[in-house]
């Protein structure tokens, strides 16, 4: 009887020992899984933050500066084009003004789409100096207006083409580069057209 009691006690002790040990293993596994999940979540958050930071910072200062100048330059051409359609005496000048409005509005919309994707803040309006140029031109009438507008368009488009070509080598963003490449032929078309008009005046 004593032998049976001893065996029973030994057996019960073993069960208690292994039962407790098994419970600890499960707890440790749960803790390990929780720690792993937390680490993964933290890493994911850090990766998301890095991605967002990279996405925002991928446009360099030169690209942003070019985009701002191109935006105000395009708005200027549109306002001057509208003015030419109202005040020019030459039908060729009026037609050129309409082309300015159409082409530069399209270019402005394309640039705005890129700027939105790249988190670039474009100026909402032309500069004060550009406004002065418009006001000065608007005071002219007749042939004087035609000549002043044509001269301004020749100078502006020469400067624009030079600025676009320079930016083509300076900026690193591919979307901005594509905008430059796609817009340059239009600017050259404008310069050719206005020079042809000037030659006949």
Automatic annotation (TrEMBL):
InterPro entries in alphabetical order: DUF4142, Ferritin-like
Keywords tagged on the record: Signal
Record-given protein name: DUF4142 domain-containing protein
Bias type Low complexity, positions: 25-47
Pfam family, one: DUF4142
Chain residue ranges for the region called Disordered: 24-47
Coiled-coil positions: none
Signal peptide per UniProt: 1-19
Transcription as UniProt keyword: no
């Amino acid at each position: 009887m004593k032998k049976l009691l001893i065996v029973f006690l030994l057996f019960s002790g073993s069960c208690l020992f292994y039962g407790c040990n098994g419970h600890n293993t499960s707890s440790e596994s749960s803790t390990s899984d929780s720690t792993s999940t937390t680490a993964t979540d933290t890493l994911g958050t850090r990766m998301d933050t890095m991605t967002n930071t990279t996405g925002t910072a991928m446009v360099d200062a030169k690209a942003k500066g070019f985009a701002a100048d191109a935006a105000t330059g395009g708005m200027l051409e549109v306002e001057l084009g509208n003015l030419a359609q109202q005040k020019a005496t030459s039908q060729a000048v009026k037609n050129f003004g309409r082309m300015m409005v159409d082409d530069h509005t399209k270019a402005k919309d394309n640039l705005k789409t890129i700027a939105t994707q790249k988190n670039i803040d474009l100026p909402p309006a032309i500069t004060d100096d550009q406004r002065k140029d418009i006001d000065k031109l608007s005071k002219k009438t007749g042939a004087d207006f035609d000549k002043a507008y044509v001269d301004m368009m020749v100078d502006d488009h020469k400067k624009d083409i030079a600025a676009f070509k320079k930016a083509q080598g300076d900026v690193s963003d591919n979307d901005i580069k594509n905008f430059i490449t796609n817009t340059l032929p239009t600017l050259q078309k404008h310069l050719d057209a206005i020079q042809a008009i000037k030659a006949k005046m």
